Amino acid sequence: MKANRNLLAALLLGSALAVGCTNLGEKSAGATIDDAAITTKVKAKFVADSTVKAMNIKVNPFEGTVQLSGFANSRAEADRAATLARETAGVKSVKNDIRLAQAQ
């Protein structure tokens, strides 16, 4: 439990730093903060889930649309990651670009 709390704290800190260092471009500061919060919530769900390998999947939100990328060990893992993202508050849609890792 303490490890999950520490990981969540690290994710929150990382998201806050990313928001502070990002080029806002077309997004408002509020949208940037909302997207950082979405990233943190989705990644926290990945960490808590036994199916999804949180470190292998990247979460890239833009104004509520979340793009997932990276590699999963199975279709079930990729589908579960998309489901967790869709069920996250603030997420409007999910684009699942997760690829299956090659068996070695």
3D architecture notes:
The chain has 104 residues and is α+β, with helices and mostly antiparallel strands. It has one domain. It has three helices and three strands; from the N terminus they run H-H-E-E-H-E. The chain has a three-stranded mixed sheet with strand order 1-2-3. The longest helix has 20 residues, at 2-21. The relative contact order is 0.15.
Distance from first to last alpha carbon: 33 Å
Radius of gyration equals 14 Å
Low-confidence stretches: none
Shape: globular
Proportion in β-strands? 15-25%
* Estimated structural class: alpha+beta
Spatial sequence of strands, sheet with the most strands: 1-2-3
Sketch the major β-sheet. 3 strands, mixed
Overall pLDDT: 85
Helix and strand run: HHEEHE
Quick structural summary:
This protein is of the alpha+beta class.
Spell out the key features of this protein:
104 residues; alpha+beta; three-stranded mixed beta sheet; 3 helices; globular; 50% helix
